[in-house]
Every structure is written in structure tokens, then in C-alpha cells.
Amino acid sequence: MEFDMSKNELVVIIGAGLSGLRIASLLTAQGISCSVLEARDRIGGRVLSMEVAEKRELGRFDLGPTWFWPRYERAITNLVKELGIKTFEQYNEGLMLSERSRNEPAQQYRLPEGAVERSFRFIGGAKSLIDAIAATLPPGTVRLNTKVTSIRQDEHRTLALEVEGQRSSIRASAVISTLPPRIVARNISFWPELSTDLIASMVNKPTWMAAQAKAVVVYERPFWREKGLFGLVSSWAGPLQEIHDASPETGAGALFGFFGLPAKSRQELGEERVLKLVVEQLTRLFGPSAENVSALLYKDWSSDPETAVLEDTEPLRNYPEYGPLAGTESWGKRLIFAGTETDNEHGGHLEGALRSAERAVSELIGLFKTNIRGSI
């Protein structure tokens, strides 16, 4: 079977996170029919912005990716401008704290001018970016609660995707997977089988954030700023090892942190106990005002089956070596892999997800052109 763009043949994208939605948007703009299959009951993937139940006026808070850096990240900066998404600069005025022990007061430091690279956040959370991209897609492009379990290629190179709970398969001329590589390796079967090199490459790419959890503590106002602090903390005492100001542009205050506790320890303690320890730490650092909590938000990505596999419970000791997967030349190049873990410069960032989307679309268009030329 040869590709023929004039016949509107279907491209299937697996995963409705940032990469998957951006790929669908780029293909739609070029008149290429596509469908996005998402196992979750929501779009966004690891982009998760939550409101406080019955307190929507407090704003939306990110439990996944939070920032982007315009100086270094051109793809996301350009897309934000193109879509007209409103952003604001991360607050970084005042003193930071360094906590060595629970029994000693945290030390205050004033960082040198320019020590903190200017970063920006989205008004309404990073989900604003997801929603803006999704709005560019035709109705019905994304199918939620649709978990792909296997992909087969027949003698005509047509791909058939089996979906959990559905009898009939979905046929496609090409498939682009944007899932974390380890999720693909563990949860989707292939026929013909993928090469040993490709499977090994997938398993050896740790899923970004999969071993982490994120806690957001919401307050009526960012009271720490009144004390000359900008919310940045480095802690050896924990449970949070890195804390940042997560306040919206105006109104409520919020602090969020990344945990030093391994995934197994968090799961053994349970969410209630973990959050109690978080509030105790913030009170220790910022004083009694930190006890007056308006809301607590928590997401343990290691417990999310669409994000983490067993190997991801081990905390990362070093920054992973991300980049394109090895051994992807099989299947007539009709199986393409994208996602932030496949970008070699900005792996783990929103920027990496977007760059991988652009690369995947470029590969697909190249495949279309090659097959069209070959059929003449």
C-alpha cells in the first residue's frame, strides 16, 4: 500500500498529551486526517492543572510541568505567541532559604543578580496551553478512554490497532506514539515484534516525573513575600527537597515542592501522612502562617499507571540520556515515536515535547513524499 495524501488516509496518534495534540494540530493544518487515542479520561497527559474543589476563585495550580524559559526554548515561546496564551514571570524577588536540619533554623541567602534564569508560567496553569492546542482540532479528533493494547502490521503494511474493551480494530496508514517509551514497551504488544535494540532503548529511557510526586499548598495570600522571601527553598531535611512559589499572578498564594522521599516511602506513608509532613515543613520554614492552609493538592505520578511502570519507582540519580529511540527503522518507518523523552536537547521539558512533535510530523511528511514518488 502506498501513501496518497489526496485519499485522506488516517494517521493515528497514541496519547493526547502535549506532543500528541501538537502533532494532530500540525497534521490538521496540512489537511492530513488524524485521530488521537488517549487512555485517560482527560487530555494533557502529564500536564495537569487543578482547581480547588468549591474554591475555584483561588485559581488553577500545576501538578505537572510548570515553567518554560523563553531565552532557551524557542518552540514553546513561538507557540505561546501564535496561540495568544497569557503568561507571567515567575516571582523571584527576595531571599531564598536553605535547610540543613529540622533542628536548626533555615539559613537565608540573597542570590547574585542573574543567578535565577527568567522563567514564565501560564495564567490558568499549563493546561491553558493544552486547551489552546486542542481548540485547533476538528471535533471528534480525540478519543478518550481508548487504551491501545497491540499494533499489528499486515502484508500490505496497513497497521491495525487493538483497543482495550473494543472488538473491532482501528486501521491506519501510520502510527505516531507519544507515550513514554517504557509505557509502550510494557503495555503494548507488536506484530511483527519490535527489534531487541528498540525494546532496550525504550526500557532504558526513564519516564520524566514518573518517580516524583508534587504537592501544592494553597493560602489566601503569598504571606512569605511580606517577610522578604521569594519562596525558593533547598532542603536536606524534607520531606520536600525543593520548594517554589506557585502563586497565581494575583490573589491567592501557593507553595509547591518536589519530594526527596522515594516513591516507595511515599506510598507506605499514604497521602494524608505525607501532606501532614509537608505542612509541618512549611511551618518550620515560613512560620505559623503556613499552618493556615486554604487547600492541599497532591499528585503522585509513580502511582499513575498511564505514567509509571515498576522500574520508575527508583529515583533518578542523574539526568537521563534522552533522545531518539534506537532501531526504529523497521515497519517501513510507519511507526514513529515522539514525546519529551525522545528529544535530545530538551528532554523532560514542555519544549522537548513540542520539538519531538515537530520532528515526528517532519518524518511523516517525508514518508508521504517518499512513497508518493515511489508510486509514480
From TrEMBL:
It holds the Pfam family NAD_binding_8. Residues 117-364 form the Amine oxidase domain. InterPro entries: Amino_oxidase, FAD/NAD-bd_sf, Flavin_MAO. It comes from the Bacteria. Gene3D superfamilies: FAD/NAD(P)-binding domain (3.50.50.60). PANTHER family: AMINE OXIDASE. Belongs to the flavin monoamine oxidase family. This is Amine oxidase. It comes from Paenibacillus oralis.
